[in-house]
Amino acid sequence: MSSWFLFSGLLFTLSSAKMTLQRFLAAYRSFFFPSPVKPPFLHICQVGDPVLRSPAKIVNPEQISSPEVQQVMIQMQQVMKRYDGVGIAAPQIGIPLRILALEVTPKRERELGAEVYAAREMSSLPLMIFINPKMEVLDFTKVVFPESCESLRGYSALVPRYKAVRLTGLDKRGEPLELESKGWIARIIQHEMDHLDGRLYIDLMDPKSFQNDAWQKINTHQGRVKIQFYEK
Question: How far is the C-alpha of 89 from the C-alpha of 189, rounded, in Å?
């Protein structure tokens, strides 16, 4: 009887070890050889991805209520929140459609300080999603400020933008939507509209101002710095 229990225990141990090994190998394959993922992504595409350099397509108004288009907008919101962004365009999650989202929460003033907030003419904006947006320049005065992009993560440069613009389009229900803005929100609009036309801020920047935003940290730590793509 004791021999039977010992034999059964050995079989159980071997079986458990086999299952543990199988789980380990599955996790290893998943990490180092992940299965292809199709857009819309839950991450932001990086420069080099052809979708960022191709003009986005107009959304058929009859398709706005479709599950596919609605899902794109849901994931745009999720990704913008995940990356703590103020704007996002559908191509940034791998979908070449003319959809953009904007949102500037009040916490920006606390993060940047009242002085910087005022100097950049920043203001809060509730979440707004524009489908098939069109932009009209209201004030052709060019304003130059540092600008960055989650599709070129870790870098920034000085970029000139028009001071005031009007954005029109359709909302997520297909109803007409309009926004007149100036200052920083106008800059965000122009930045996201560029994404829909296959442009990036590096196409408009002052080349000499282009920088890695961690350059001081790199010098302070004598180059021993790990620049992460995603921290959260």
Answer: 10
At 30, which amino acid appears?
A: S
Q: Which two tokens stand for residue 149?
A: 């992009």
Task: Report pTM.
Answer: 0.83
CB-count exposure of residue 160 (10 Å: 0-12, 13-18, 19+): middle
Structure tokens at 145: 């400020």
* DSSP per-residue letters across 111-153: HH-HHHHHHTT---EEEEEEEEEEEEEEEEEEEEEEEE-GGGT
175 is catalytic: no
The terminus-to-terminus CA distance of the chain in angstroms comes to: 56
- The single residue of 109, 180, 192, 231 carrying the catalytic annotation is 192
Model confidence pLDDT, tens digit, residues 60-114? 999 999 999 999 999 999 999 999 999 999 999 999 999 999 999 998 888 888 8
Which two structure tokens, joined as six digits, stand for 180?
A: 């007149």
> What are residue 57's phi and psi, to 5 degrees?
-95, 150
The DSSP secondary-structure symbol of 204 reads: T
CA angle 132, 123, 96 (to 5 degrees): 25
- Return the CATH number of 50-220, one of 3.40.50.2300, 3.40.640.10, 3.90.45.10, 3.40.630.30: 3.90.45.10
